[in-house]
Write a structure and sequence with these properties.
By secondary structure, the chain is α/β, with parallel strands linked by helices. The chain is built from 6 helices and 10 strands; from the N terminus they run E-E-H-E-H-H-H-E-E-H-E-H-E-E-E-E.
Length: 189
């Protein structure tokens, strides 16, 4: 069975965006981007909330564009190759390749995807990931902790959720970012 993995770039105080919705402080440099690319190579399907999808769909436009940095071209190729499921009540049709829409989050649909997939799944968007965490569907959490405190905004992890984690990997980058990989030990029921 495939794993469901939640990956987020956060501030030191645990936010994916600040109180104004800005996340420019989280843009990875080439070293961090290369690490993210390596993690994403094993993913066969992205599960995305609508807001994250709207941010990420630019990668379809960057696909096969030779005038960008190697890490950008590499991630655009990864994005283009994977299946994407967008969870949205309002998106009428996707604007990217290999993309379909689910109107509601249904844990049984995710369990079926995991059971049928040969490659791992990635979930993104803090609200969508919170639902998956609370449903006990997430096996791994990857956090890229940025050396900044933003003081508020959208949290990477839900406030009303707890579980036990086991540190399974870490890496320090020259720009001060720290990568932490956790295995979820006691998924919620």
């Amino acid at each position: 069975m495939a794993k469901l993995i939640y990956t987020a770039i956060t501030s030191l105080d645990g936010y994916i965006e600040d109180s104004q919705g800005n996340f420019d402080w989280s843009m990875p440099d080439d070293e961090v981007h290369s690490c993210i690319n390596n993690l994403e190579r094993g993913i066969g399907t992205y599960l995305l909330g609508r807001k994250l999808y709207d941010v990420m769909k630019v990668w379809d436009e960057l696909y096969d564009q030779p005038d960008h940095a190697h890490v950008v071209r590499e991630y655009a190729t990864i994005w283009h190759a994977v299946d994407k499921v967008v969870f949205s009540r309002s998106l009428e049709r996707p604007s990217t390749s290999k993309t379909r829409i689910e109107r509601t989050f249904d844990p049984d649909v995710i369990r079926k995807l995991k059971a049928e997939s040969r490659e791992d799944l990635s979930i993104g968007g803090a609200n969508l990931a919170a639902q998956a965490l609370k449903a006990g569907l997430v096996e791994e959490i990857n956090l890229f902790v940025s050396p900044i405190i933003v003081g508020g905004g959208k949290r990477a992890l839900p406030d009303d959720f707890s579980t036990t984690l086991e540190l399974a990997g870490e890496r320090h980058f020259d720009n001060g970012v720290v990568y932490l990989r956790y295995v979820v030990k006691n998924p919620a029921p």
